[in-house]
Amino acid sequence: MHNEPLAFRMRPRTIDEIAGQQHVIGQNTALYRMIKNGHVPSMLLYGEPGIGKTSLVYAIAGSTNLTFIPLNATTSGKKDIERVVDEARITGKVILFLDEIHRFNKLQQDTLLPHVENGSVVLIGATTENPFHDVNPAIRSRCGEILQLNRLEKADLILLLNRALTDEARGLGKQTIQITDEQIEKIAEGVNGDARKALTLLESLISASDEEDGTVLIEDWLIENLIGRIGVFGDKNGSHHYNLLSALQKSVRGSDTDAALYYLAHLLEVGDLVAVNRRLLVMAYEDIGLAAPEVGPHVAAATDAAIRLGMPEARIPLANAVIEMCLASKSNSAYQALDAAIAAIHQGKTGDIPMHLRDTHYAGAEKLGHGGYIYPHDHPIGSFGGWVNQSYLPDAIANLQFYTPVLAGEEKKSAAIYERLKDFRKKK
Question: Taking every annotated instance into account, which residue ranges of this chain make up the domain AAA+ ATPase (predicted)?
Answer without folding.
Answer: 39-151
